[in-house]
Every structure is written in C-alpha cells, then in structure tokens.
C-alpha cells in the first residue's frame, strides 16, 4: 500500500498574456480536481466517513428503531428537534453522509483510474534501467570472478529467472547491465483493491436505489402478497415503483418454535407455501438463518409471537368467531405480549364498536389478580383483557397503530371501558349489555420480511475482490534487482556489482543474501569449468 | 443437556490459567528487575545493534535468562490451561466455545497470548515485552471472569449456523492480533520518546524500558502484526455481512456493531497507510494503531453493554 499520488501531466505552461477568465476558471477546476483525487484526500474522506458514522451508532436511528427515536424525542424534545434538523436520526441516509460518500467515490475514481492505466502499461514495459549509483541501493553486494563480464551477467540472469524475475539486458555506459523485476502482483493487488472498493460502493448505491424491504405479521393460516399496500412497514429505493415488485404471494401454514430445557430458543420454523406470478404454490420451510431465496427476492422469518383468538356473541345471538389480532411480545424471554383486537363492525344494527385490549401470557400465572407470563411455550395460555365499547376513531383520517388504542378517543369519552377479566382458554366474560366475549384459543404469528437488493451479489463479489487485492498488496513484495560488471581491478576477471530495491513489508536482507550466495556459488562452478578458475575475492555483506 | 462437571472443569481451568499467567508475569518482572543490562557503554556497543541502549542477549546475566525461560514456559502452560478451559466449555454445551461475550473475550485473550508466544519464539528480543502483554492479559481475564461470566448454556437459535465458526473465529483472531499490535505500539511510543531523549544528550536514569527492544524493532513488530491482522479482520467483517444477509435479512444495516467494525476497519487501513506516508511515520502512525485498539475494545464493551443492537443477544 503506498500513498504516492499517480504521476500527472505537467501543468500547462502559463501563456504570457493574462489568462482569460475562462482559462482561470478551468485552471482552478483542474487544481480542485487534482486535490480531490490525491490519495491523501481519499484517505481523509475515508476517515471522515468513519467519523461521520459515529453519531449513527450513538444516537437512535429511524432505520433501526422508530420506537427508540420516539422515546428520545419524548425525553429531550428540544435537543431532539435540533438533532433531527441535522439528520442525526437518519445519519446513513443523510445528505451530508451522502456527500462524503460521493466525494470519496469521485476521489477514488480520480486516483485509481490513472493508476490502473499506468500499471497496465507497466506490465508491458521492461524493468527500468540500472541506476547509476548501484551501491546506494538499500541492498548491495560485489562479487569478483574470473569469468568475463557477459558470462557473469548470464549467471545473474539465470538466477533471477529461476526466481521468476522478469529480466532485461541492456548496454549501459560502462558495459552490459541486467535489470530484473518481480512482484507485479503487488501493484495489481493495489489496483484491484481500489477498483473493487469502487465497485462495492456502486453495488451499495445500486442496492439502495433499486431495493426494497417490506415486513408484515402473518398469523397461521393467513397470507399476503408482495405489494406495498399490504406491508405493515416498508422501505424502498427512490427508483422502485409499486409495479416493479415481484408478483409473490406467501401463506403461513404453520409456525413452530422449539425451546431448550432452560428456555433458550433453539429454532423457529415457518411452513409456508408461496407462488410466483400466480403459478403453482410451492411448499417450503423457512427459519432463522434459512430464508427462502428466489430470483432476486428473499423471504425471512424475523420474529414471532401469539395472536389470541376471541369469539364475541352479541345479545341478539349473532356470533363473531375466530377474531384474532397479533399481540406484540414485550418480553422476548417469556413472550408476554400486548395488543388489541379491534372490532369496528359488529354487524347490522350495532351502533357501537368494540375493542379487546389485553395482555397475553403463553404460560400464565395469576398472583394477586395480576397475570404474568413465566414461559414462552403455550403451556397454559391466559389473557388479561379490558373491553372497550364506543367509537374507535379508525376513520378519523389519522393513522392508528394496530397494536394499541387511540388514547384520544378514551380521554374524550367516546370509547369506554365496559369490562375487564382474566381469562383462560374457553372462559368468557359478559358485558353489561349482555355481549359475551370468549377467549377461544390462540394462533402463532410470524414476522415475515421480504427483501429485494439487486446490488448484493455485486457487493459480495466486490468485497471478495477487495480481500484478494488486499492480500496481493500485503503479501507480495515488488523487488527490483540490478547488476552491472566492471573489469577487475588488476585487469583480470570481473567485478560484479548487484543491488536491490524492495517494496513490501518483509525483511529483505535474508533474501538478498541468499541470492548473492547462489550467484557466488554459480559463478564459482562456472569459473571452475572454465579455463581460469578463481574463487570470489570479496563479498560485501549487505547492511542488515 | 449441559454437562455440569465439564462446565465446572472449564471454570477451574480458567482459574488455573489466570494463576499460571500471573506467575509468568511475576517471572517476567523478575527478569526485568534482575536483568539490568550491564551498563557500560563500550560493552553494549560491542555486540549489540547500536540503536538506543538495548541490551544484547550476550550481555544478559544468566539469572535473567533463566527467569526469562521460566516465564516463557509458564506462559505456555497458562496457554494450555486457557485453551483447556475453552475446550471443556465447548464440550460441556456440545458446541463451539464462542457463543457469548464471556467466551468470545476469552478467546480473544487466548489469541493475544498465542500471538505473543509466536513473536517471542521467532524473535527472542521480543520476549522482553512479556510483562506488558501478560499484564493486560491477566487484568483482562480477571475482568472477564468477574463481569462477563455466564454459565455454560446452549446457543440461541440465531447462532446455530456454520457461520458462527467462520465469522466469530476470525473476529477473535483479528482482535487478538490487534491486541498485541496495539500494546507493541504503546511500548514503541514510550520507548521512542526515551530514545529521543537519550539522543538529545540527556542523561537518563537507568530504567526497565532499556530492556525493551529498540523502537525500530517495536515499530516494525506492531506494523507486521497489524498487517497480519488486517486481512483477517476484513474477512471477519465480510463473513459477518454474509451471515447477516441470511440471519437478519440484509447484509449491512448500520447496526452499532457493524458501524464500529467499519470504523475499526478504516482506522487500521489508515494505520497501514500512515506508515508509508511522509509526515505520519513513527509516532503519529503508532497513535493510530492505539486508537484502533481502543475502537476494538469500545466495540466489544460499549456496543454490547450500552446500546441495543442485533449483536446484543450474544451479549452478557
Ligand atoms: C455485517 C454484519 C456483521 C458485522 C460487521 C459483524 C461484526 C462483528 C464484530 C466486529 C465482532 C467482534 C466483537 C466485538 O468486537 O465486540 C463480532 C462478533 C460476533 N458476531 Fe458479528 N457481525 C456481523 C454479523 C453477525 C451475524 C449475522 C451474527 C449472528 C447472527 C453475528 C454474531 C456474532 C457473534 C456471536 C459474535 C461474538 C460474540 C459477541 O460479540 O458477543 N455477527 N461481529
């Protein structure tokens, strides 16, 4: 990893006459561009991105939990309003986060593309010529041999080729010279790393633009289709329109939660049947860590709970059966849950609406009249309910939670408590007007999420490439070895001068010493075969 | 389901590990205390690398060398007990022993000790940082035992996945390596300040710091370990994202743990860059490494204790 900026074209020479305003603007833009595309700027922006994400982890975020944000607003109303103005509850979709991200993106392009081109070119250019002052390289050694210069260089060349160097021989000022280079993979890794980082950002952005996510609570025996109207909550990218959604329908046939002895949840599985484009329904079991993956869409179980069922028999004998509503777990350990069943339509003639608000305990224990849950399994389901009659305010135009009553209606007196009771399955309570409310049983519901993120495969590919590039960059070292020969001091033989330059993170001394040892040995053998045999005279140890 | 006798054996091994590490720590301290370098300039200059006043192995009194070997052996024994504690815990619950914060942190410390031993065996001069590694190790283990301990138990449903092996093992590996790297950078900061003062001609009272490897060696060690840890960490984050796609319905959602993993990644990337950027070499880059370690610890403690994220179920 290096931080040298890519080489840039020389600045245009200033013309003698004062530059036109157009020129000046252009020059200024050019300067900004260069500053933006310097590696240093990219680094700063990366750093800034990290800093910018800190508030996103310290303050509640809407994308993670609207409830926590609401609580924060309730606790610190003034501060929250200010923070909200700075998008601090939506850090990761805020304009300033996007600005950093975008600048980083541009900066990366400007810094990587020239570098990639440069590297591409360097793959086809031979290693650079031998530097004039070989002995100034970090690693340097001299060997004397009786071989003629060209033969000594042959030996060096062979040793380098064995080590998979790319070698070129040139005629230098003082005779033949050899330059060798290897470790192109290092720069390839660098370019791959940075290009993949770009691809990753693109994949992320694309996924956000064209992706969506909807979630819904589905009670056993019920189903839903993939459309925004049906979801309890959904989020979609700006480029998604309702018509783009895959025609997918899902039915929840059965849900099962399995617990260990100590009540740790061991598994959740949902038997679903789904169909795409109105085709044949397919049965499948999905669960935690095991979603349904279709072409582009994924279906998850993200939670579960109970939907108590009620039967309401009106004084005139009309029976409304199998009324149920999902109650939200308030304690994940015991699945104690709260919710409300709203019955806006009691049938012909009824002027009033009913609501059964309550607390559901899968395994209930009543102490001093208070119901609590002690086990998440439905061993002894009980409810504590308060029944209201009056006007629910569902058509008031204001959005209403399906999990709670509109407190305004109660405060205003248009919705009144008409009874309360603790009920086990099969038990009922009779309201003053003769209506009978029976807790007839329960079903389980599953929180189902449908996600679509066309970018995620790209992001995966890009992140694997990031890792590969990183490994290349960190593990491969680029080595350059240069050698030249000069006639020996006493006129006979040759002095071979070898130097090397390494870029990488490892100790290079031993490798260079090994190379010199091998060259020395090969020179000696070669010389012994030749007429005038002489051992190497001196070897200068490389500085360690 | 839980084999209670194995579970309590695991707790015993844990205690044994802490005790043996403490003994090793004492031995390391004694080595430093008795092993004052023979303080004659000429002698040191003769065989040792010249930088600073680092003692060459040859000038080390035999007693100190013996103490050092004892300390190393004790560290190794502690490591065995430490590993045994994790293995028995895993066996007691019949699963991988890194399913909650107690186990996870214990593995991180194990990796740190292992990383230290590898360093010390490969480069004997690094043995002298033992005190500064084992000190934090003993403190961390004691805190882990006191604050994070939970009974052995089965895994929650979300963790019953093959990815637990991949993601969490690499996360601990990366964390443990960064742990050692961060400590070495702290030592570098201290040591390089001392060398600077010595170079400026100040007469320094002899100090245990003289027994540390030279600043250059410390800097290189910190960098190498971070270079080793960085790809592992990158892999751990990618593996986490792949798992999250299957478990939570999206591969990245800026959950607090994810956010801080990202921040740590950037800090370490910055450290590796800074080492090769003029103006940032040496002390400033070492500081970045220290910040990196702080971010890792923050991610472990703050995110699991204070904020509620998706990782919290794995919490205390
Ligand atoms: C993008 C996704 C993810 C990221 C970035 C991520 C990041 C991390 C990090 C940084 C750690 C180290 C712990 C620390 O420093 O505190 C960690 C540990 C852990 N991760 Fe993840 N993770 C991801 C997804 C997941 C998923 C999907 C699961 C399981 C469903 C998971 C389970 C764990 C567990 C059990 C630990 C160790 C225990 C602990 O912290 O208490 N992670 N993860």
Automatic annotation (TrEMBL), chain B:
Q: Where are the transmembrane segments?
A: 12-34, 67-87, 99-119, 131-150, 162-190, 226-244, 259-274, 286-305
How does the protein associate with the membrane?
A: Multi-pass membrane protein
Q: Which InterPro entries match?
A: Cyt_c_assembly, Cyt_c_biogenesis_CcsA, Cyt_c_biogenesis_CcsA/CcmC
State the GO CC annotations: plasma membrane
Which superkingdom heads the taxonomic lineage of this protein's source? Bacteria
Q: Provide the alphabetized UniProt keywords.
A: Cytochrome c-type biogenesis, Membrane, Transmembrane, Transmembrane helix
Major place of residence: membrane
Q: Extract the GO molecular function terms from the UniProt entry.
A: heme binding
Which biological process terms from the Gene Ontology are attached to this UniProt entry?
A: cytochrome complex assembly
Give the location in the cell: Membrane
User: Per the database record, which ranges form the Cytochrome c assembly protein domain?
Assistant: 98-311
Output the NCBIfam families linked to this UniProt entry.
cytochr_II_ccsB
Name it.
C-type cytochrome biogenesis protein CcsB
Species, as recorded = Modestobacter muralis
């Amino acid at each position: 990893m290096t931080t040298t900026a890519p080489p840039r074209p020389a600045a245009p020479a200033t013309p003698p006459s004062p530059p036109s305003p157009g020129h000046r603007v252009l020059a200024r833009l050019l300067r900004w561009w260069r500053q933006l595309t310097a590696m240093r700027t990219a680094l700063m922006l990366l750093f800034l991105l990290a800093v910018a994400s800190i508030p996103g982890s310290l303050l509640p975020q809407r994308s993670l939990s609207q409830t926590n944000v609401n609580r924060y607003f309730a606790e610190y109303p003034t501060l929250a309003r200010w923070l909200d103005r700075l998008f601090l509850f939506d850090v990761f979709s805020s304009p300033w986060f996007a600005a950093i991200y975008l600048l980083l993106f541009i900066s990366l392009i400007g810094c990587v593309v020239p570098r990639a081109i440069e590297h591409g070119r360097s793959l086809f250019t031979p290693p650079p010529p031998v530097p004039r002052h070989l002995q100034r390289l970090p690693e340097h050694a001299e060997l004397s041999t009786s071989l003629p210069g060209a033969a000594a260089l042959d030996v060096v060349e062979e040793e380098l080729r064995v080590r998979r160097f790319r070698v070129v021989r040139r005629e230098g000022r003082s005779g033949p010279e050899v330059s060798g280079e290897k470790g192109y993979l290092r720069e390839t890794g660098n370019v791959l790393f940075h290009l993949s980082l770009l691809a990753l950002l693109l994949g992320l952005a694309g996924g956000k633009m064209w992706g969506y996510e909807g979630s819904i609570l589905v009670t056993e025996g019920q189903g839903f289709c993939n459309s925004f109207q049906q979801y309890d909550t959904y989020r979609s990218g700006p480029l998604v329109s309702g018509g783009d959604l895959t025609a997918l329908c899902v039915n929840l046939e059965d849900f099962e939660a399995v617990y260990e002895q100590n009540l740790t949840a061991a598994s959740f599985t949902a038997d679903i049947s789904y169909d795409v484009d109105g085709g044949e329904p397919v049965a499948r079991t999905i669960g935690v860590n095991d979603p349904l993956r279709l072409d582009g869409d994924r279906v998850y179980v993200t939670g579960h709970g109970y939907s108590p069922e009620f039967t309401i028999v009106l004084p005139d004998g009309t029976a409304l059966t199998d009324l149920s509503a999902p109650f939200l777990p308030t304690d994940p350990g015991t699945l104690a849950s709260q919710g409300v069943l709203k019955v806006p339509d009691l049938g012909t003639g009824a002027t009033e609406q009913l609501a059964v608000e309550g607390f559901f305990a899968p395994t209930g224990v009543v102490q001093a009249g208070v119901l609590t849950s002690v086990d998440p399994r439905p061993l002894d389901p009980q409810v504590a309910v308060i029944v209201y009659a009056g006007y629910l305010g569902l058509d008031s135009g204001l959005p209403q939670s399906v999990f709670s009553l509109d407190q305004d209606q109660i405060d205003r007196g248009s919705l009144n408590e008409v009874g309360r009771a603790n009920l086990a399955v099969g038990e009922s309570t009779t309201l003053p007007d003769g209506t009978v409310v029976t807790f007839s049983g329960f079903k389980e519901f599953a929180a189902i999420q449908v996600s679509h993120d066309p970018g995620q495969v790209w992001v995966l590919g890009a992140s694997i490439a990031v890792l590969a590039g990183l490994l290349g960059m960190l593990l491969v070292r680029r080595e350059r070895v240069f050698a030249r020969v000069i006639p020996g001091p006493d006129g006979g033989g040759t002095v071979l001068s070898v130097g090397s330059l390494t870029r990488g993170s490892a100790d290079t001394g031993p490798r260079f010493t090994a190379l010199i040892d091998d060259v020395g040995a090969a020179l000696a053998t070669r010389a012994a075969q030749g007429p005038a045999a002489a051992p190497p005279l001196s070897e200068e140890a490389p500085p360690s | 389901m839980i084999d209670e006798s194995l579970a309590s054996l695991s707790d015993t091994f844990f205690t044994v590990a802490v005790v043996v590490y403490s003994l090793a720590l004492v031995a390391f301290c004694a080595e430093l205390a008795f092993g004052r370098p023979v303080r004659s300039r000429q002698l040191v200059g003769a065989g040792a690398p010249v930088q600073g006043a680092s003692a060459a192995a040859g000038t080390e009194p035999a007693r100190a060398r013996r103490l050092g070997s004892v300390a190393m052996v004790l560290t190794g024994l502690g490591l065995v007990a430490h590993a045994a504690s994790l293995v028995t815990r895993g066996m007691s619950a019949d699963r991988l022993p890194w399913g909650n914060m107690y186990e996870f942190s214990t593995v991180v410390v194990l990796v740190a000790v292992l990383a230290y031993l590898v360093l010390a065996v490969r480069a004997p001069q690094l043995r002298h940082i033992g005190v500064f590694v084992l000190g934090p190790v003993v403190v961390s283990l004691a805190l882990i035992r006191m604050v994070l301990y939970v009974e052995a138990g089965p895994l929650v449903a979300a963790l019953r996945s093959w990815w637990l092996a991949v993601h969490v093992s690499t996360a601990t590996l990366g964390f443990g390596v960064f742990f050692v790297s961060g400590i070495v950078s702290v030592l570098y900061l201290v040591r390089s300040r001392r060398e600077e003062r010595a170079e400026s001609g100040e007469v320094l009272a002899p100090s245990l710091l003289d027994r540390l490897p030279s600043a250059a060696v410390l800097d290189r060690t910190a960098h190498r370990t971070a270079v080793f840890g960085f790809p592992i960490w990158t892999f751990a984050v990618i593996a986490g994202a792949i798992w999250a796609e299957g478990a939570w319905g999206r591969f990245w959602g800026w959950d607090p743990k994810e956010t801080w993993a990202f921040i740590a990644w950037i800090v370490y990337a910055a450290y590796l860059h800074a080492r090769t950027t003029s103006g940032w070499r040496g002390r400033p880059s070492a500081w970045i490494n220290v910040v990196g370690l702080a971010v890792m610890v923050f991610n472990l403690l703050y995110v699991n204790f204070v904020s509620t994220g998706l990782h919290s179920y794995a919490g205390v």
